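User: Quick sanity check before I run a bigger batch. Here is a single chain. Can you write out its predicted 3D structure?
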Amino acid sequence: MEKEAIKLIETFLSAVQKVDMEKLVTLMEPDMRWSQPGHNQVSGNKQSAGEVFQMVGKMFELSANTLTLAEVKVLAANSNQVACLLRWTAAHPSGKKLDIENIDVYTVANGKITEATVFTTDVEQENDFWA
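Assistant: Done. Predicted structure follows.
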């Protein structure tokens, strides 16, 4: 099960890096849950893939389309869950920069992502950037 889960998340993260929305739709359960940390315009619990795409759209808007998954550092599986250490970067038109590592934990079932929980290494930086 771990190998299949890691393969799915590798495919997902590759699609994120390429901003391949068509591929992303096929990998996410429509009623998936997503938890984004912080207290800002993009944080909170999302109750569907549609809400996740709205959040990501807001991230691209706020970052003037500069949000990038710069690095996938680690992927580790435990049954149907995959934890990932990721580095994200972005630049705001005001000059603010985002350079952050997150640990994302994805739950996989029936070949789709059913849940994601994001942990940030610097919630203050995230709150400031996405304010």
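The beta strands are 28-36, 44-46, 68-78, 81-91, 97-109, 112-120.

User: Great, the batch can go ahead then.
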